[in-house]
Specification:
- By secondary structure, the chain is mostly helical.
- It is elongated, with a radius of gyration of 18 Å.
- The chain has 3 helices and no strands.
- The chain has one domain (about 5-65).
Length: about 80
Amino acid sequence: MSLSNKTIQNLAIALTPEVIDYIYADEGWIDYMMEIIPEAVAIKLKTEDYELVAEIAYAVLENIVLKSVTVPMSKGVSVK
């Protein structure tokens, strides 16, 4: 099945809020974020101080938000 770029863009816009809700409802999302964020913080700060990394990682998590944005799609995209 081949869909026009406009149809794909409209479907993406319509589905984005539901997909974001689905991600947030999945406990795996938080588990993954609480695994990857401390790792990134520790690497970026070059520290293994668990308490410091955990505190900063939690603050970083509070700053991360999935939101919908409209991004123009490239021409010639098709779904098969």
